[in-house]
Amino acid sequence: MVSHSEIDTVLSILLKTQGTNTMLGRLSTKYDPFRVLISTILSARAKDEVTEVISEELFKKYPTAGTLARAKQKNVIDIIRRIGFFNVKSKNIVETAKMVEHDFHGKVPNTLEQLTLFPGVGRKVANCVLVYAFKQDAIPVDIHVHRISNRLGWVRTKQPEDTEQKLLNLVPRKHWQAINETFVSHGKTICVPVSPFCSRCPVYNNCRRIGVARRR
User: Fold this and answer.
1) CATH homologous superfamily for the domain 29-132
2) Cβ-proximal residues to 88 (8 Å cutoff; 6+ apart), any chain
């Protein structure tokens, strides 16, 4: 099993070399919890650069839960059409806005259980909102976190949901908020899905996948 000191080392190196430059990291510095929630719903299966631009356009016209709750779906589609699954997402974000406005008195809830009540919000989206909007300790597991955790040898899992549970038990709580930010940045630049750039990887010597390969 990977040690806490090894986890400390890997995350420390990645924080220094990758920084914090994800879409959600940027949006969390200027968006309120409602906008972080809506942007995260939109980001599913979409490129960050597209989501970021579309989110900006959406919030210019519908800046609050109240205004988006009153929007017609066809008008929302006109704004987000460039994003994948725009029909479903337009319905989900309008319904989410209505729930925030009427069921939660205009404020986004800050618990996993309540966040997952919204349409289009599973554990990953909910955990992203907890981390990026509320600075709570949680581990959002997307494809990058799932892939890199397995490549590093921290976990051996098939599904992101299993990876989340393993990481919650394995990683010291002080690192929970940092994992998504660092692994997403690392996964987009170095530890990419196909043909990762291992020769340029700053945690090359800490990667059990590479270490096993070198010993053979």
Assistant:
1) Hypothetical protein; domain 2 (1.10.340.30)
2) 120
Q: What are the structural domain ranges in the chain?
A: 4-20+139-215, 29-132
| DSSP, res 3 | -
3-state secondary structure 83-119: CCCHHHHHHHHHHHHHHHHHHCCCCCCCCHHHHCCCC
pLDDT in tens, the chain (216 residues): 889 999 999 999 998 887 666 777 777 767 899 999 999 999 988 888 899 999 999 999 999 999 999 999 999 999 999 998 999 999 999 999 999 999 999 999 999 999 999 999 999 999 999 999 999 999 999 999 999 999 999 999 999 999 999 999 999 999 999 999 999 999 999 999 999 999 999 999 998 776 444 433
The type of residue at 97 is A
- The reply to whether the predicted model has a pTM over 0.85 is yes
Which CATH number fits the domain 4-20+139-215, given the four candidates 3.90.1700.10, 1.10.390.10, 1.10.1670.10, 3.30.70.260? Answer: 1.10.1670.10
